[in-house]
Specification:
Elements lengths: L1 H14 L6 H7 L26 H9 L13 H4 L13 H10 L17 H16 L9 H14 L16 H17 L4 H5 L1 E3 L13 E3 L6 H17 L6 H20 L12 H17 L2 E7 L7 E4 L2 H21 L1 H5 L3 H5 L16 H8 L1 H9 L7 H11 L3 H5 L6 E4 L2 E8 L4 E7 L2 H22 L5 H6 L18 H15 L8 H12 L26
Antiparallel strand pairs: 1-2, 3-4, 5-6, 6-7
């Protein structure tokens, strides 16, 4: 209203030939009466009109044909002089106007604010709690844009849900709203389920134990095990492992779950009563299960319980191989054996012979061969390396990773998860610092050539520039020690996660296909480097004198590659 008066006052002054200064206009004005908050339930802004609407919603109200036809006197300025001012508002259909106010969405805001007005109390509290938890847990999940959160709040209001668990967000996994809702529900599980409650619900949360495994979330879904007795045995084993001897990675838990899922699917299909009564199971059923797994591996048949994820459609059954059979046998065996040692299987009436007949899965003992000379020359060719760099559309460091693997002979995970501050010089010798998590050696250093040192320096500048663009400032000294040298693109707000092995392996395989040099895997670089070192007189033993083991120690050892 003051804005309209300013334009009118300025025009009148110009017609009279008088200066129209804004400060002079402000001196003549008095505050208008307060019209309260906008009548649109979801809008937090102040109303600037007697009808009770803010400026944006008043414009929207006119564009949508004025539902209910709310009107004020044409010239209501005289009512403003009354004390208190009472401006009459008439309606052709007041219920229609109030309905429009309830159903109208809040307009897009540019001030970074989220409105949860109009939501039921529980779902409003859930969204607030999940947002706070997501902000604190910088290592999990991606960025939640304000417009996506506002869209979520609008959906909750339209569907009049009491809780986020009741919200229908569709089945498309690429739907951003669905992704955010599922992340919120994962946060809320820790509130609604205690550690013991998860056993009946059919899942397990490592956050209940204060543990977050590397590159894995807190949630382990156990619903794939349909027999309640077997699912309880699996939960008990995972609970004991997390309580007494937490694993360094998620692999032991995933393998045990996989073994039980496969056994469950077979029992559901072939055992009496679907395997739900453990007293009916005998050693013959386990022998048949073992034979079925081996037959599927021999003929490349699909798995009964395991599935591979697919973005283009529903999950597809995974193919059984010798490696998956090994995992299946070992995973199910350790769960059943642990339950037998505790006496749990005796309590539920499960025959001991059913357990002991399950064999130990023995993995293949084959080794990776070094690259043949022809393959090594093709993988080191500058033109081919340039093609590898060009295939990295987001410049995540695909070529740099490959060159680091070739020069250092380290495992893929040790290079992919290297930190930003992973190089320095000691006595003018360039060093590469990394964690050898597989063997438990942390903060180890190896000597690297000057060329690789310069490659990593350039990659450091690229990562720092991306961090600065994302956060509006360069990383602090502490952040430089924590963020990844090759940060992944998604779900990585703090740059703590390195690119995944799946991403690198798929890009590497695609590059090899274009080179037409046959089958090869990145791990062969370790054996190629070791072979070349031995050929040039290197010793199989590690040097253990006069070299530092960590950045802060003056004594220890340094592996020389």
């Amino acid at each position: 209203m003051h804005n309209d008066r300013w334009f009118s006052w300025r025009e009148q002054r110009r017609k009279r030939g008088l200066p129209a200064e804004f400060d002079a206009y402000l001196a003549t004005q008095e505050p208008f009466p307060d019209f309260g908050v906008c009548s649109v339930v979801a809008c937090p802004d102040a109303a600037d009109h007697p009808v009770g609407l803010c400026t944006p919603h008043r414009s929207l109200y006119r564009r949508e044909g004025r539902p209910g036809d709310a009107q004020t006197p044409r010239k209501y300025g005289r009512y403003l002089a009354m004390n208190p001012p009472v401006i009459p508002v008439t309606y052709q259909d007041e219920k229609g106007f109030r309905r429009w106010c309830r159903e109208t969405d809040p307009l897009v805001r540019m001030d970074g604010k989220l409105t949860l007005l109009g939501l039921r109390p529980l779902v409003k509290a859930e969204i607030k709690w999940a947002m706070v938890h997501h902000h604190r847990d910088i290592a999990e999940g991606g960025h939640w844009p304000i417009n996506a959160l506002q869209h979520l709040a609008t959906k909750c209001r339209h569907q009049a849900v009491n809780s986020l668990a009741d919200l229908d967000v569709g089945n498309d996994p690429r739907n951003r709203l669905r992704q955010i809702t599922h992340q919120m529900l994962r946060h809320l599980r820790l509130v609604y389920f205690s550690r013991r409650d998860t056993k009946d619900a059919g899942f397990l949360e490592t956050d209940h134990y204060g543990i977050r495994l590397t590159n894995y979330g807190s949630h382990f879904d156990l619903s794939g095990v349909s027999q309640r007795w077997l699912r309880d045995l699996l939960w008990d084993w995972m609970d004991a492992r997390l309580t007494t001897d937490p694993p360094r990675s998620h692999t032991p838990l995933v393998v045990s779950r996989k073994g039980c899922v496969e056994l469950s699917a077979y029992l559901e299909a072939a055992a009496p009563e679907g395997g739900h009564d453990p007293t009916l199971l005998t050693s013959d059923h386990m022998v048949d299960f073992v034979a079925d797994q081996r037959r599927r591996a021999r003929h490349g048949l699909p798995s009964l319980g395991g599935h591979t994820s697919s973005r283009a459609g529903p999950p597809e059954p995974a193919t059984v191989t010798k490696g998956t059979v090994t995992d299946t046998f070992n995973g199910a065996r350790r769960v059943l054996r642990a339950a037998m040692d505790r006496g749990t299987t005796h309590d539920i009436g499960l025959d001991r012979a059913f357990i002991v007949v399950l064999p130990y899965g023995r993995g293949s003992s084959g080794r990776r061969r070094p690259f043949p000379d022809s393959v090594a020359r093709a993988l080191a060719n500058e033109q081919n390396l340039q093609g590898l760099a060009e295939s990295d559309a987001d410049d995540r460091g695909l070529r740099d990773i490959w060159e680091a693997l070739v020069f250092t002979g380290r495992r893929c995970g040790e290079v992919l998860n290297a930190r930003l501050e992973c190089i320095d010089r000691l006595n003018k010798i360039p060093l590469f610092w990394h964690d050898q998590t597989k063997v438990g050696n942390l903060d180890e250093a190896i000597r690297i050539p000057e060329r690789l040192y310069q490659v990593i320096e350039r990659r450091q500048q690229t990562t720092i520039a991306r961090f600065t663009q994302r956060h509006g400032r360069p990383p602090t000294d502490r952040e430089r020690r924590e963020i990844a040298l090759f940060p992944r693109r998604t779900a990585n707000r703090a740059f703590l996660k390195g690119v995944s092995y799946t991403w690198f392996h798929q890009a590497f395989r695609s590059w090899l296909t274009g080179l037409d040099i046959g089958h090869a895997v990145p791990h062969q670089t370790r054996h190629t480097l070791a072979t070349n070192l031995l050929k040039h007189g290197a010793n199989l033993c590690r040097r253990t004198h006069d070299r530092p083991r960590s950045r802060t120690s003056e004594k220890g050892r340094l592996m020389v590659r």
